[in-house]
UniProtKB/TrEMBL annotation:
Protein name (database record): Isocitrate dehydrogenase
Keywords (A to Z) from UniProt: Oxidoreductase
Molecular function per GO: isocitrate dehydrogenase (NAD+) activity; magnesium ion binding; NAD binding
Family according to the record: Belongs to the isocitrate and isopropylmalate dehydrogenases family.
Organism whose genome encodes this protein: Zobellella denitrificans
PROSITE patterns linked: IDH_IMDH (PS00470)
SUPFAM superfamilies: Isocitrate/Isopropylmalate dehydrogenase-like (SSF53659)
The organism's place on the tree of life at top rank: Bacteria
Pfam assignment, any one: Iso_dh
SMART domains on file: Iso_dh
GO biological process: isocitrate metabolic process; tricarboxylic acid cycle
Length: 335
């Protein structure tokens, strides 16, 4: 039986080192993948003259599954966000951001277990219609919500909740003010919710959701919302469990899925072997679950949990002094 091939994009800054950590752990867990490496971001720009070479896009399409480190999009005109481009090119309409408490992390809460499901291709974040006036005195952009896009993401959220045995979905919106776009999203979400009587549905205006997440995070289970709100809320949720270093993300479409560290490339600490690789390790766990490899996913998650709880060999953001390499080896030892 041939090995399952996955596309690996090491990324920029700390990306190569944390991706390497995740791959070592996958190998030691016996996942038996074949890795096809591809360039994107600043590394690709230097080597190939473009941020997203066609060869990389071809590998993503071929293998269907990609594990990706953080990428840097250069600041300034002429450069489109690489992540936004990938979502549009492969119609990765669902962004899945789970946050789970790990004993031993620096966080204010315990027992957090929230999944934010963010519509990934529409809304204000899509960048449609962006322009400035010639005199730079005004700027505008469009937010477009479609019934198809709204229904697709809300169905995804309820199906995920049902499949994972979760009890509640919170629909987050701003329909009281954004009556057209957010209003349509809420209307469609209400229609979809009626198809899932076994799951409790809650509605919350986005500003109230932010306040309640900070004060009463235990009230949330699955959150589903539009693109921009989801971008903000998912980072807020990461703050509940110790920061972006503990927050993975998945971009899922009909045919292709990309799993990633959601934080930036951290060029200030690149090459120092001190980065926490947990975000991309947890993303690889999401990847395993997507592939139906639940036992391997559980095995790696428990090794990460045990290593952090022991607190003896963890990176500095987790309160320790270990290098990326030492932390990775400690997780491997606990597999």
């Amino acid at each position: 039986m041939s090995k399952r091939s996955i596309t690996v994009i090491p990324g920029d800054g700390i990306g190569p080192s944390i991706i390497d950590a995740a791959l070592q752990i996958l190998d030691h867990a016996g996942c038996d993948f074949h890795y096809d490496y591809a360039d994107a971001g600043l590394m690709a720009l230097e080597k190939h003259g473009e941020l997203l070479p066609q060869a990389t896009l071809d590998l993503i399409a071929k293998n269907k599954i990609t594990l990706k480190g953080p990428l840097t999009t250069p600041v300034g005109g002429g450069f489109t966000s690489i992540n936004v481009s990938l979502r549009k090119l492969f119609n990765l309409y669902a962004n899945v951001r789970p946050v789970v408490s790990f004993e031993g992390t620096k966080s204010r809460f315990e027992n957090i277990d929230i999944i934010t499901i963010r519509e990934n291709t529409e809304g204000m974040y899509s960048g449609a219609g962006q322009k400035r006036s010639d005199d730079n005195a005004s700027a505008e952009a469009m937010s477009i919500i479609t019934r198809e896009g709204a229904e697709r993401i809300v169905v995804f959220a309820y199906e995920l909740a049902r499949n994972e045995g979760r009890k509640k979905v919170t629909i987050v919106h701003k329909a009281n003010i954004l009556k057209s776009t957010s209003g349509l999203f809420l209307d469609v979400a209400r229609e979809v919710a009626k198809r899932y009587p076994d799951i409790e549905t809650n509605e919350m205006i986005v500003d109230a959701a932010c306040m309640n997440l900070v004060m009463y995070p235990e009230r949330f289970d699955v959150i589903v919302t539009t693109n921009l709100f989801g971008d903000i809320l998912s980072d807020l949720c990461a703050g509940l469990v110790g920061g972006l270093g503990m927050a993975p993300g998945a971009n899922i479409g009909k045919d292709v899925a990309i799993f990633e560290a959601v934080h930036g490339s951290a060029p200030d600490i690149a090459g120092q072997n001190i980065a926490n690789p947990c975000s991309v390790i947890l993303a690889s766990i999401q990847m395993l679950e997507h592939l139906g490899m639940q036992d391997k996913a559980r095995q790696i998650r428990e090794a990460v949990r045990k290593t952090i709880a022991e607190g003896k060999t963890v990176t500095r953001d987790l309160g320790g002094t270990a290098s990326t390499t030492e932390f990775t080896q400690a997780i491997i030892a606990n597999l």
